[in-house]
Amino acid sequence: MSEIQPKSPRATQIQVDDGHQGQRIDNFLLNHLKGVPRSYVYRIVRRGEVRVNKGRIRANYRLREGDVVRIPPVRIAARPEGVRPHERVLERLEHAVLYEDRYLLAINKPSGIAVHGGSGLSYGVIEALRILRPDERHLELVHRLDRETSGCLLIAKKRSALRVLHELLRSNKVDKRYLALLAGSWDRRRAEVDAPLLKNMLQGGERIVRVDAGGKAALTRFRLLERFEKATLVEARPVTGRTHQIRVHAAYLGHPILGDEKYGNARANRDFRERGLRRLFLHAQSLRFRWPGEKQDRHIEAPLEPGLQRLLSELKN
Predict the structure, then answer these.
(1) Is the pTM of this model over 0.70?
(2) Fold match between domain 87-165 and domain 173-316
């Protein structure tokens, strides 16, 4: 498939191959028109300047193998070279690989590293992995984790794998389980929080989420694992995948996650900081899913980092 050249004097015709089948046209264009503002990409689609098989399409059109995409002449601004992650970060991620095959990669994402650059961040996990795997041309995030959350993160190595995994996620066929340490002693063994979540952007671009009847449906199941004097270890299973879902639903229960500076209890956070907890105690412990055509589930687990393990041992003692 031919690439678009900067400052192209004429329209470009691209024939879609199997690797891009099923991809939305807006994402296809954003991937090829590097340096072009997102708003401009949507504008040329809306105006009909982008054509598929000589016809107008909408931004949510999904490409088919053999489609011919016409892209109008676009002046592409030169992009400043991104900041390269520190070698320690690259080495940490190289050692964080949990599973890898020809289709996907799973890592134990460290807390404190965003999954992608943007919003003031020069790089994230996906940018670092593209440096570590220069021969893998199609590395894409399958899903996301908050910057402060650690644990299982899936990256597709082929466009076809990304489609498969997205369909599994959409149909709730990926079992995701998290470990969370909640503030206070939770007096229940199980709880199901079915509370819609609404996203807001505060001044300065900070994102906050709250339970609101006007929000999107969100469901989280909590299960007691162990009670301590001033904390409770639970397993959290998000049935839906909303931003900050587990964190907001835990706070809604009256037992926010320890170390949560946005939705947590300041006094409890301070007490546990003195015990050595310097991060959000939320960890994506495992993923389980069935790859199409296979007879057994794939089960990927990510161990807790040593600092969290030590804290749990101290609480038990």
Answers:
(1) yes
(2) yes
